[in-house]
Design goal:
Radius of gyration: 16 Å
Structural class: mainly beta
Strand content: 35-45%
Helix content: under 10%
Largest sheet: 3 strands, antiparallel
Mean pLDDT: 87
Low-confidence stretches: none
Shape: elongated
Length: about 80
């Protein structure tokens, strides 16, 4: 992830993030199925505060992503 304001201004910066809280929509977690394939089933989203080294700051909600193995998607 790159700071959008820095990108617009042609600058480079690093990002620090702080997790603010998450939903409790259910969590199965990571597991290996009977075929030895790895799954990630986490339906929780969470809010994160971002601050770049140039001083720009914003809060965003990071949502679940589909399981890379089976495609299960918790996008409520």
């Amino acid at each position: 992830m790159i700071c959008a304001k820095c990108r617009e201004e042609g600058k480079r910066s690093t990002l620090r993030l702080r997790k603010l809280g998450n939903t409790l929509m259910g969590y199965v977690g990571e597991f290996y199925d009977e075929n030895g394939k790895f799954h990630i089933h986490d339906g929780n989203s969470f809010k994160v505060n971002f601050k770049c080294s140039a001083g720009h700051e914003w809060t965003d909600e990071l949502k679940p992503f589909p399981c890379p193995t089976c495609g299960l998607n918790y996008d409520w």
